[in-house]
Predict the structure.
Amino acid sequence: MRHWVVIGTVVAIFALAGAGSVVGQAANPIKIGFGMALTGGLSANGKPALLAMQIWKDNVNKKGGLLGRPVELIFYDDQTNPATVPGIYSKLLDVDKADLVVSGYGTNLIAPLMPMAMERKLTVIGIFGLANNEKYKYPNYFQISPTGPDPATSTATGFFELAAKQTPRPQTVALVGADAEYPQTAMVGARELVKRLGFKTVYDKTYPPSTVDYTPIVRAIKATNPDIVFIASYPPDSVGMLRASHEVGLQPKIMGGGMVGLQFTTVMTSMGPMLNGIVNYDYWVPEPTMMFPGIQDFFKEYQPRAAKEGVDTLGYYLPPYAYAAMQVLGQAVEATKGLDQQKIADYIRATEFSTIVGKIKFGKNGEWAKGRTLMVQYQKVQGNDVEQFRGPGKKPVLYPDELTSGKIVYPYAAALK
Amino acid sequence: MARFGWTLVVGAAVMAAGIGVASLRVNPYLYFAGYVILQYVVIATAWNILGGYGGYVNFGTPAFFAMGAYTSVFLILSIRAPLPVQILAGGLVAALLGLGIGYLTLRLRGVFFSIATLALSVVLQTVITNWEYVGGSRGLSVIRPSGPPFGNYVVFLFTVMVGLAVVAVIVARFIERSWIGRGLAALRDNEEAAECMGVPTLRLKLFATTVSGFLLGVAGAPFPYYVTFIEPNSAFALDYAVNALAMPMIGGTTSWVGPVIGAVLLGTAQQLATVTISSEMNLFIVGVVLVAFVVLAPEGILGLVRRLRGR
């Protein structure tokens, strides 16, 4: 009898697995396929990105779809594992017959898609990958993150240029980052900037991403007494570094730079006033200079749905750009009146797009022709209430000049008061 | 010997069938999925030589797999070595690692051996993370050679994996049926008793760690060309350790055919789940199936079949 239970379980699992593939077959829809990090390390951003893309799909379908056909999104969980990517995109293209693809979220999940895209001559819009096209120089790849023509230095540029403008001018720099893909790239960029602007490096070290206690690192940095502390970190270590610097009392003149995670709602609310004074990169903040046409409507739809689905409730970092990526693709399909990959790519390369994150023109290597990585400073954050982050004032934009919405509090210690 | 001859004939037939499938040019997705499943056939079979036959549970599968993969990366970067050279070198490096581990953990048994292998994986991952030449923590995009055989590189990789799976299974079957297999079984049941009876336990253990390591490295060697991007977290993923253990357990650990059955069943279920439901379901499947087997059929599917026949 017992073995029938086992056989039954196995059969049931197979049946369940098969059932998923027949869901949702509308009348001749345009299928857009992608893998997305819905589990694993990048899922905290992958899920909000997916929601933004679904909102775009709903909006487009409400208006009658693309080319008069409804749009359908086909997506699979890549588990934040690059090894799943080739299989997923092959399934999308060969079995599901997706008409168009976009990338999943993150540098490492875009990288395995590149050779396949080149082999099959696909047009690919990348969602927040850093310098994916450096090696391939594939003309039909476009990156939606506003890091600009030189992605490696993009986070460091604003931070160090801002630092160089302060009086008294800071002199010494501590560079610290995790032993991981993004921080390493950002550190390379930072070193370049330090050299270019004539600062003096007094500390330059990395730590393993699995570090739990950051106080020894922060103590070591404090011992060198730097004026500038540039941190390139992922969410868990951003939090760890910030807590440790408050414990140890690290107070350089300016601190932050490339800390991923401080932009996320859950991190902002859990850190609260500890964020004050940190100057960090960002892509979108609710400041008057960032209110591009359509963005408020997007958040009006995104925020209630995000609350219901339990993903990033404010959604200020990645979601607007994920939406914009789909807008670019949609506009290109409409304009070229078809689904020809090459025509779509040619159109994207030649056109300036109006999106909810402003005007986008792609340039060298498929990156934004002109970079727009913001530097913001957390100011007057009080308590852990999420509502305070909805309006302007908590994260004024300090860089670039044309988007500036506030003044830096300098030195760092003054912002803590 | 006649029996072994038959094994070779069947093996050659399977390889020919693999090449036949490759030339059919069916849906390309099947080659992608098939590659992963076959890769698991090699991994499960290799793990079973040490874990199933010898009773030494190895949690360090990712270390051996990644050694194969990173040896390939090194050879691609330094001398643009062709795939067969990569596979051979990957296997040899992993075999040396296996031999080294065998020596280092001579006195460790049971759970202590397992912990040591897990530690090995952590140590090697740290080394690779800090080795810039092979991409370090940032990872590295690997560009496949142009003008692939069979017209498509993935189809070619699929065929290569068919060959590797056949070789791995033949090796496992040969070991199982020879005096080495019987020696390993004695080692598994009671190491002291086996030693007293004149079984060369040390030599057998070293042989098993080396051969198992070799095959795991071989499984990892084509990985960079398959995924075209390699970084430490995915090369050293815990999935390999879990699957390498779960697949033989489900199929049955005492025979060469057990890991093959387990790898095909579980590997297929995982591939289906990845592209249908979600990966949460993917992990869930491994968990549920493993628990079901441990509770209801501790000797795997082979044990079930034997019990059914016995009645």
Observations:
- The radius of gyration of chain B is 19 Å.
- The mean pLDDT of chain B is 89.
- Strands of chain B lie at 140-141, 229-230.
